[in-house]
Structure formats: structure tokens, C-alpha cells
Amino acid sequence: MELKEIKELIKLVSESGVSEIEVERGDFKVSIKKNSEKTTIVHAAPIAHNAPVALPVNTVIPSANQFSTEKMEAQVSTQAVSNLITIKSPMIGTFYKTPSPDKPSFVNIGDEIKPGKVLCIIEAMKLFNEIESEISGKIVKVLVENASPVEYDQPLFLVEPM
Fold it and tell me: Is this structure's pTM higher than 0.90?
């Protein structure tokens, strides 16, 4: 079992509701248990004495969140702030915070928004889709950089409700 495969298992455990996984492949066995702050490899050792060991026994590996993309970091930071509302991307595409390069942003941090207010544009398949607010509030944070790709359900903005 290669280190890449072990990292994928750690990511699977961290992202899913599973708290423990045990995989046996040939003469190699790995057991991964999840607790609240870190993922621990409880036992990673070959069953046969001559098989190579990928990681020493009881090695602690940082949570998969540290290996992940900005999306995961944004989700973790939004979970820490309970009174804020997260506005998420309704589609896959490219995020634009301005209508054109020489125009100002649709919204900035501190701006008050109301339902129907255009927040950004997401380009998907050469179509520019205006994303409108469905809530009233104040923009606290923009979680995506201009002209960056976004995925479905990816957090875009944090809003303090009014």
C-alpha cells in the first residue's frame, strides 16, 4: 500500500461520517480511527516480516483538512461561526465578483444585501449566470478569489443576517 493510498483513506475517514476504517491488502494491514482533532493510524504494519512498512506503527498524521483545498478550509471556518449564513454556489463554474474587469465588485465586505441583489457571476459553459441573494444581511467575508473555479455547493460568502 502506497502513501498516496493511505492519504486517500485518511481523507475518506475525515470527510465521511465513518469514524474508523480497516483495510487489509495482501500482506499489509492498516487501521485508521478518527477523533475530533486528528486522524490517527492506529496500526500500520505488514503481516509478513519481509514486506516493506509504509509508515511506522502509531504514526499520527494531520487531519485530511490540512491536505485539502480552499473549499475545505472555507467549510471548516464557516462551521466555527454559528450565527453567520453561508451563501453557496448553485453550480460549477468560474466565480467573478465584478461584471467586467474595469467595473467595481458587485458586493464588498461590509455591504448590506437584500433579496434580489446580485452578488457575483458564475460562468458555466460560456453562460454568465448572475447569482442573486435570497436573504437580507451584511457581507462579512468573501470566501472565493475572483476568476477562480468553484464547485456546486461551495461556500462563496458569509453573511450576518439582519
Answer: no
